[in-house]
Amino acid sequence: MDGVSITSAVKRILETLPVGVTLVAAAKLRSVEAVRAAIRAGVTCVGHNYVQDAAQMIPLIEEPVRWHMIGHLQRNKVKRAVQLFDIVETLDSRRLAQEIERRCAAMGKVMPVLVEINSGREASKTGVLPEEVEQLVWQLSELSHLRVQGLMTMGPRFGNPEDARPYFRLTRETFERLAAVHIPNVEMRYLSMGMSNSYRVAIEEGANMVRIGTMLFEERADE
Ligand SMILES: *Cc1c(COP(=O)(O)O)cnc(C)c1O
Question: Quick check: is 159 in a domain?
């Protein structure tokens, strides 16, 4: 897809997002040129699934943009990840958090993180179960070089996005429940959920951060 089409796709989506909803462009498998076109059209946050991809792209992009880690983060990649990313959306274990803490302490950096919820309770998926998240967040609240700023979920993939609604709702209820606990050093500020086919439903269920790839970077059938 060329720069002109990406520009119009970005503008179309930005126009339809309610005020207060942040668009994260999911950049996996996209070229530097494509991502640059998206940024010029108004994208302010770009998500990567792999540390390696981010390490290749980030030095080539001069435009100011916030880099989000949206893929599963392995502990042996944390050192590089904390240098590259502005936020990790996929924190899902205490061990991973301790490694981020250690690496960020050495750099004098505080890393914003979202806790990933496995809202569909899928064995194949990463993330913590909704009933386990509060205990993990209490543990994270003691680490001074990371800062919990909200929750993220993928949810099961469905052809019909309405089928994803209960999983988004469950995640939002978890988000509200945690906000009401007022855990020190923890903010419930970002609720990251919804992708190209499901972001409208996710926003209806309370998402204020959506991660969109296909709709920004791939030609629509009606064009
Ligand atoms: C690819 C990806 C997205 C975007 O999915 P699309 O269907 O291409 O919009 C969002 N979140 C994560 C974690 C992804 O890997």
Answer: yes
